[in-house]
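Attaching the record inline, Q. Sequence:
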Amino acid sequence: MRTLAILPVKRFEIAKTRLREHLEPAQRSRLAEAMVVDVLDALLESPQLAGVAVVTNEQTVATVAATRGAIVLRDPTESGQSSAALVGIRHALAAGFERALLVPGDCPALDGDTLAALLQAGAPPPSVTIVSDRHGSGTNALLLAPPDAIEPAFGTGSFARHERLAEAAGAAFLVESPPALLLDVDTPEDLAALREGAPGARTRAVLERL
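Structure, as predicted:
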């Protein structure tokens, strides 16, 4: 099935605010950019994906994404990850994609093997494949077949919400737990865990300078 990866990206000035007591604004921006580019590279290098769409108003990311061949979509409301994901989903439907993979820009350990396994594990439509966060309550990735199998509802407690939405839609519900997607970086504890893990090259370089 033709799959579009959708990567929502906040403007760096409003990203990672929960790290503000530990990192200066410039440090948060550099970290956010490095993580996003590592995720973007992993997506663009995946032969299993038919396209990558970046939904953002961050010009730095828009320029990098366009230069590397990704689709760049503007976020008209900047009202959160779910609304940005919907921008990508609408594009996927209009362009005839059969699946959408929603991934965050703060999982910089993402790699090709993880993507291949996740896409291979997806069930026939209608289906929802969810990757939870490391706490088991949030959502770090959604694979939707078709792209509008459910309307994404990210945020605190989203794992249970997505499960309920899949059930209400009559879609098969699968759970995957690839280590490379379990850790997203929102809190100082997440940042500490990232330092001990295996993030992409750009993120590692920034962490070494923090």
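The chain is about 40% helix and 20% strand. The longest helix spans residues 25-44.

More tomorrow.
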